[in-house]
Amino acid sequence: MTFEEAIRIIQISERARQGRIRAEFMKQIYLEEKRERQARLHGGKSPNLDASAVCIQKVWRGYIQMKRTEKIREEEMIFLGMNPPPHFPRISASLMQAQRVEAMRCEVQEKHKEEYKKALVAIKNRLREMEGPDIKESLQEQIRQWFIECRHITGKFPDYPDEEDGGSIVIFSQKTPEQVAAELAAKEEELQKKSKDKGKKGKKEKEKKKKGKEKEKQEKKDNEEKEGWKMAPSNFLPIMEEGNNWYKDVWQHREEGWNFHQEYDPELVKEEKRKEVKEEIRVQVDELMRQELKNLKLAVDREKDKKKRSGKKKKKKGTKGGKKKKSKKEKDLTPDRTIDSLYKELVEGGLLIKPKTVKLSDYVGEYSYLGTTLRQVDIEPMPSLADVRQLIALYGILPLGSQALHEKSPLVKALLLAGPAGVGKKMLVHALCTETGANLFNLSASNIAGKYPGKSGLQMLLNMVFKVAKQLQPSVVWIGDTEKTFYKKVPKAEKEMEPKRLKKNLPRILKSLKAEDRVLIVGTTTRPFDADLRPFCKVYKKIILIPRPDYASRFALWKHIILQNGGSLSKSPTISCLAKMSDGFTQGHIIYAAQTILSERRIRQLNRKPLTAVELMGALARQDPVYKEEEDMFKAWYAKTPLGKARAKALMEGEEPGKAKGKGKDKGKKKGEKKGKKK
């Protein structure tokens, strides 16, 4: 190193040494001064340990009591429902154990299912090998015996029953050969009579049917007026009775002690598979016996086979009827195009959209606990959000999710969701598609504006949409702001959009939808009172009025939002305060306020700095609530609809008997008072 660098290193080390010595010296001076101060305080005596202990005890006991009081206060608030319980979002040990048991149960179920599937094939093959030849021989012997008996009674061999009529099942249905021959002859005579009398009786029958229908309608109305509304018998009752009877016959008195692990029962499988094997063998035997009967007729009776000719005639008649029906159906404007190409075109045109993954349980809301109290004071309460969720499940999710339910339950082709902005109408549409796995078509006036112009273009659009919807069912056709389609008077600003394009076509489309088509038209509207009521209610016969949330629903929503983000409120403003202060605001307003406040940075600070009501209410106050006047407009509009009128009529009928009883009591009181005065 250079001479200057060596000098600099020596200077640095020397200054450091001097600094250490100075620091040690200053430390000694500080300690001496501290000892002198303590000696002055105690007058030269040692410190009083008892006084120090009492001082420490005071502070500690005060701290412990403060914590205990806070805990008692917190428990009281949790008990009253004012605060959420601690560790509410965390999964408890019992729940985790239940989830593990559920997972194990699913694994065992899958294992048993695989074993059951293998057993079905193995047992069926074994039955076919072991019992198949015996079944075949016994069937052939019984059918030959039937041939001989018919020949002996009628003097000729009978005609073998068609496969459509059941084949040899007709022979084995505990009927004598005479009865079977008589039935076959009667069927032929009926077919001949029907073909002759169709033209003559057509007009008279139609007139009679019309008169009969009118009489039935009038009788129904009279009975309803006399007896009041009565629930119609359910279409599912016979299925439930059949299932109940099957349970009683098979499972009620069955001994299951040997089958602790709940594996398949070989005897039950044998009973089911024996029927299948017998049916398969019966079809083979029918073919053999038809040929044998043909040979017998040729050899003994010298008769020609008349069965083929009659079969051809029946087929020709069937094809004619089919052609007539086809002429009534609407023409397919895209017969040469595949469903994939139509699907692609609709997606590219923005008419077929991807629904958001939202569950129905995400639509947070509670039941109206004050409904009965309000009715006692002659105030009709608005429906609760839990009622809305239930109706969406009944009218939308269950019929679209199951073909059997859709065919047997009352057919709902169109559904209207009406309510102020922000109550979750679009969310319910997306939840409906998510829960059922349905395709979502968007035919809102704003979405179809400028697409497929003209009358022919509109017909092509509707043909494509409903063709794809029926082929790829279940499907939901959503019409947003549907009041625009039924405007009384179109505003000048919206005339270019042609919002009333679908008005004439919607009733025709609804008529074309049948019970087997799992297609639901869902309309959403924030201003239903702008639409022409009569055509509007003809299309949307089921209306769900969605109100702004009540106190219970707002409480549940605030709790859900705050806990979902992993936050907690400070102890002074509780969730109940927020629920009370946000009266009049919708779910959309509340969620928007929470999203604006709960940014990523604010969420990270929640553990150190809990949320305050001032923060949330500040964001909420910048929005306009739903005022009472707007809610009254929705109530008044709903009262004018057919559903509203029917509801009002039912309520009036329910109140009339109560009023009559009240009048009787008042008369009795007055009579008693008069008698008392006379005495």
Descriptive tags:
Rossmann fold; ATP binding; 679 residues; 6 strands; P-loop_NTPase; six-stranded mixed β-sheet; Dynein regulatory complex protein 11 isoform X4; mainly alpha
- Mean pLDDT across the residues is 80
How many strand segments? 6
Distance between the termini: 136 Å
Major sheet size, sense and barrel closure: 6 strands, mixed
Order of helices and strands: HHHHHHHHHEHHHEHEHHEHEHEHHHHHHH
With strands numbered from the N-terminus, the spatial order across the biggest sheet is: 1-3-4-5-2-6
Low-confidence stretches: 303-308, 313-327, 660-679
Helix proportion: 55-70%
CATH superfamily of the domain at 349-364 and 390-489 and 497-548: P-loop containing nucleotide triphosphate hydrolases
**CA-based gyration radius:** 42 Å
In the CATH hierarchy, the architecture of the domain at 349-364 and 390-489 and 497-548 is: 3-Layer(aba) Sandwich
Treating each run of at least 4 consecutive H or I residues as one helix, how many helices?
Answer: 24
**What is the approximate shape?**
extended
Biased composition (Basic and acidic residues): 213-229, 650-665
Keywords: ATP-binding, Nucleotide-binding
Biased composition (Basic residues): 195-212, 305-328, 666-679
Protein name: Dynein regulatory complex protein 11 isoform X4
